[in-house]
Design goal:
α5 crosses α7 and α7 packs across α11. The chain is of the alpha+beta class and 323 residues long. A hairpin with a 2-residue loop joins β8 and β9. It is built from 12 helices and 9 strands. Among the domains are: 68 residues; 83 residues, no CATH class; 73 residues. Helix content is 46%, strand content 19%. The strands form 3 sheets. It has a 4-stranded antiparallel sheet with strand order 7-6-9-8. The longest helix has 22 residues. This is TIGR04500 family peptide maturation system protein.
Length: 323
């Protein structure tokens, strides 16, 4: 396998990434038990391309294979960075550096969701590099059409205006949508055969409850209302006479009410009271299946994240190292 991989790598000299990926597909077909990941770097110094190949057998480790032709850029010059590469954008001659832009979004560190999504996207991309998803032109075009319909982009003019606002070309749009489809295929691949067992093991977590949700204008009003209910006041009667409170009857995941039973009143947030109307056991219908798939996929992401070495190139270690 190694001589075959080296020969493939040598054959990539002068090839563009699209052609290189196609040749790697042939290598994967010849060695189905091995996972190959192609890395490339385009040098600004002379616009040359350099390829490396990561070869991994699950449970055994990773081999890094590299080849450099005699005429290639010397190793000490690789990675030379232009000053412009530190810029995120420039407006009327005024540049904004990446580190400054991220610093201005610093408050988002109080919510890990943005960071988690960035890391999750990188982990999925790594999976796609090792085990690509093949999409036909017809599948991609169908996905682009569905993407446009979902956003009301039903004419060429509206679609072009939408892309212009985001500085996207038709090729960019096609690649972005294809990437989303590929991620969905990875999710299907990861969760295949794991949904039913997980559901049976965690069935009680996927039940639903019908509740009356009473949202107050502030936490103090919610505390006073809770005290009145404890003293015997009726939930709906209190809702009618409380100024500024909003009452909604809805279905929520049973996990939101914990062990509460019909007739109980719980407070999932400082300004919210819920009265449980009914609790229904879980069935693996289409909606529940989607919830279970998301849970299983999130667990897979967590496993990959714990095993991955994550390096941030901005911010402080305290902010990035504990995520």
């Amino acid at each position: 396998m190694l001589p075959d991989a080296l020969e493939t790598l040598r054959g990539l000299d002068g090839a563009e990434p699209s052609e290189a990926r196609e040749r790697l597909r042939e290598l994967r077909e010849r060695h189905p038990g091995v996972r190959f990941r192609l890395l490339w770097q385009r040098e600004d110094y002379d616009d040359s391309l350099h390829y490396d190949l990561l070869i991994r057998r699950p449970g055994e480790g990773t081999v890094s294979l590299s080849w450099c032709p005699d005429r290639a850029l010397p190793w000490p010059l690789r990675g030379v960075q232009r000053a412009g590469e530190t810029l995120l954008l420039r407006i009327d001659g005024v540049g904004v550096k990446v580190v400054d832009a991220v610093a201005r979004l610093d408050f988002l560190w109080d919510e890990a969701r943005l960071v988690d999504r960035i890391v999750a996207a990188a982990l999925v991309q790594a999976e796609l590099e090792e085990a690509p998803v093949e999409l036909s032109d017809h599948e991609i075009q169908e996905a682009v059409d569905a993407f446009r319909r979902a956003r009301g982009l039903l004419t060429v003019e509206r679609t072009r205006e939408w892309m212009d606002r985001r500085s996207l070309t038709p090729v960019d749009l096609r690649e972005l949508v294809a990437g989303e489809v590929a991620v969905a295929r990875v999710r299907e691949r990861v969760t295949a055969g794991r949904v039913e067992p997980y559901f049976e093991e965690h069935r009680e977590e996927f039940g639903t409850a019908r509740v009356a949700r009473l949202t107050f204008p502030g936490s103090e009003a919610a505390r006073r209302a809770a005290a009145e209910i404890d003293a015997g006041a009726g939930f709906f009667a209190l809702a009618e006479r409380t100024r500024g409170a909003r009452l909604v009857v809805e279905d929520v995941p049973a996990a939101e009410i914990g062990t509460a039973r019909p007739g109980d009143v719980v407070s999932p947030a400082p300004d919210v009271l819920l009265e449980v109307i009914s609790v229904a056991g879980a069935e693996l219908d289409a909606d529940t299946r989607r919830r279970v798939e998301r849970r299983v996929f999130d667990l897979w992401i967590d496993e990959r994240r714990r095993a991955a070495k994550i390096e941030w190139f901005w911010g402080t270690t305290a902010r990035t190292g504990t995520r």
